[in-house]
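hi!! sorry for the late reply, been swamped w classes. u asked for the two structures so here they r. pasted raw, havent cleaned anything up. first the sequence of the first protein and right below it the tokens
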Amino acid sequence: MALKLGVNSINKLYLGSTAINKAYLGAGILFYSGLSPDDLFTGNETGVFYDVSYLSTLFQDSAGTTPVTTAGQPVGLMLDNSGNNNHAAQATAAARPTYQTGPARAALDKVDDRLSITVPVGGFTGTMVLATDQGTASYGVNIPAGTYVIGAKGGQYFPGNAIVGQVIRNGALSDGEAAATEAYFAANGATASYGAVTNFSSFWRAWSEITSFPLIDTSAGTIFRLAWYYCTGLTSFPLIDTSAGTDFLAAWYNCSSLTSFPANIFDNVKGGNFTDAFTNTALTQTSIDNVLVSLVTSGIATGTRVFDQSGGSAPSSTGEAAIDTLRSRGWTVTVTGGYSSAPLSSLFAGGQQGLLFKPER
């Protein structure tokens, strides 16, 4: 596994006072302090490697005739450093990202700015490392042959506001290679962690190529609405920190392959807007139980209290008991199977003491 402290990659390693440049776990790289594009493609793997700090690889036009030389100029062509010549281009002038410095980056207007490449026959099934001005992370991906967007999906949805660098390799990176690539981009100006982001709205919306999602730092996140909307390639999800979260509207909507979801993920959330959060997913019974029990643990009994799930499995008796508790706290809960809560009188079926008032009609 990669060397990390919490969710943050370790960029330097020492033996006493001597810096260690490379460490192995068996035949795999566990830690690597240096990186060049060639290191990731030594086996003639297909893929791409873009680094906006390589000014000589940027051109204002898609034909590559006018170099980018200063901040404020458009980026119409970004050359691939992997040796595969999968250059990223934008023929429409108004949809070109803008080169900026401090750090070097291709800024996106989040309206229509993007570059595109032609993925070769066979596609890319492996790892993508995406470095932005707001965070850097590694993802499992499955990208089919054909046109693929580099930058904001549809020109709008992107985990940041600018590209600092991006690697996609056909063939999975080892944890050490992925960590080294993330550290490389961070050293070139990318933000290493997403820990300062408060609004994750639509960050990965419609990124259907993502097959695995990393355990990034989301501890400051309050808004998660539409964050993974239509991420149809995801089958499982990590135990991210949602403790500051208030709004999860449609966060995993139509993640139609999503079966596995961790326990305790919502134990400390601050708000209860889960409208359409799990609509058209494929959650297992254990996973939907996990979600419902975690919402009970949160203790939320004021403000917006809506939870929706469809597709996948109906909850077990454990999940149904959690629904009863949530509804007693004012939640509107819709789940696969359409569970209707037991009569309120059943709350005292075990001889518990209490009062139940029913107004006359």
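now the second protein. again sequence first, tokens right under
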Amino acid sequence: MPRPAPEPLEDPAVTRRTSIALVLLVLAATGLLAGCSGRSGRGEARAPRNAADSLADWRARADSIDRSLPALSRVDGELKLGVATSRYSAWFAGGELRAIHDELSMGPQGARTSRFYFVRDVPRFVDESGTVLAGSVQAPALRKLEREMIFDDAGTLALGRKELDGAPAPVEAFEGMAIVGHAQQLRLDAQLRRSGTAPDTGGVAHAAR
């Protein structure tokens, strides 16, 4: 008997959009769960692996990197998924990604501006501000968010600081996982666009100096 025809492989573009969807959903959940946990804390989180540098060290390093960005190769991109839109700029020094600045809008779930700084393709520091959906499940509300995180060379959260409406709030490990996931999606998209091989995701992008 003839063998049945093999099933078609999954469309890579669909797989990629699904991955982005999962990341954005995690980001949305991060904001809600952060406000619903009810846990108290000083707004700092330490993972078993300690950060090699302090938040103050990384703030100074990030400012120094930002001053160097005009001389680097830049890629601008936009990713859309439902009500969520991520518009970013990525800067490369040779073939190495140095930084990504991202404007993420999630409609009624808030919006934030993020600055990611990379070392050997791993996000090591993120500085964020904006609004996030938080509060109780019965009465969620948008609250002002300020957040900084340091990651080790494996991408694990090492140190963090967060404020909601100006008050210290605990930084949870799952927040770090969500941020790293989003940063890596942006990195991969920027690298594909830089190489001219990015699939059509419904967004726009261009490369510039």
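hope this helps!! also noticed smth abt the second:
Residues 5-52, 200-209 have pLDDT under 50 and may be disordered.
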